[in-house]
Amino acid sequence: MLSNWLNELPGALLSGVLNPVFIIAVLAAVIAGVVRVKRERRDLRTAVKPWYIESFSLIGVSLIIGIVLSGVISGAGFVLETSWIYAVSLLMILFTVTGQFRLLSAGFIFPIAFITMNTMSYFNVTLPDWVPSLPQTFVAAGIIMGLLLIAEGLLIQMNAVKQTSPRFVKTPRGMKAGAFFTKRIWLVPLLIPVPDGLISEAGWWPLLSMGDSYSLMILPAVLGYQLTVVHDLPQSILKVNAAQVIWLGVLTSVLAAGSIWAPYLILASFAIAFAGKVFIMLKTRKVCRRSGYHFINGDKSVMIIDVLPGTPAAKMGLLRGEMIHKVNGQIVSNEREFYQAVQKSRAHCKLEVLNHAGEVRYTQAALYEGQHHQLGLILIDDRKRETA
């Protein structure tokens, strides 16, 4: 049996690489990085992070998660009909090409595929000969959907939290405010048993049988996340989102597995996955809108929107979301006043800062000639913006 598995692996790897989802996902990650850098240079006059961050995120920790999930799916024998792989791939391509990364979730893709397949079966839609027949069971698809939701939550927690981009937005009153934007795409390759091939049944394997023999295919599952946060530092709400998605994945996986004994539970699994994702999305949007705009200048302080890594500001321990109250003893209320105060002492910069808890702390650093405009701070100014 082991030799049959090894014989199937090269074909499975080839199916994953040749899947258009893989190629389109790579291009989408590159384009997303380039677009982000252009926007940052237009709005902030500098790029906070290089363009390839999105590309590294695409195949970073998600590859490890994919290997783990592949072991679970293939080892347990959750057989998925090839029609599911085709349907899911088409939806992933659609949402990736249109840039709707927020819809690149198993909680949206699998229920839509489920509804589409059942609708086509109900109306006896005739498909071309090259299209695989519609599946007879959805249990494996429901379990895989739940596992991908868990993967999505883990990726939000481990990757999206760390990779947020600052931007400026206008409040309803016309004031300039800071915001944090994250738009991520991840590739989670799944090794999935499919009907017909060299691998035969052995003992209890597969748990969910579908035919007498099986082969292997790789589904390059593409997951995405997109959110703009204006009311708080992004870490807090992204961690909440991550936990919500993980628990949604656990619930839908359990329901899908329970449908082995109670078939109608599979309907609840897909329905709850879709409704849960919509609820999380709408609730997050509601929280952001009701909480107002947090990242704006105070009457006697300047808000730090971000700190560029490796700069004097980073070495001073300044953090995004902190407020600069005084520069060299002078109160400042916007970016222009900040740099004017810095220039008064060309060799030294002492700051009075309000941290996230509203407590006062002091930090200072020596500056070299001309370095006052290279501190590495991204600040807000309702008038003319200068380079930080």
TrEMBL record:
SUPFAM superfamilies referenced in this protein's UniProt entry, alphabetically: PDZ domain-like
InterPro entries the UniProt entry points to: PDZ, PDZ_sf
Domain PDZ: 292-357
Assigned keywords, A-Z: Membrane, Transmembrane, Transmembrane helix
Domain of life: Bacteria
SMART domains: PDZ
Database matches in PROSITE patterns: PDZ (PS50106)
Annotated TM spans: 12-35, 56-78, 84-101, 108-125, 137-156, 264-282
Protein name: PDZ domain-containing protein
Organism: Jeotgalibacillus alimentarius
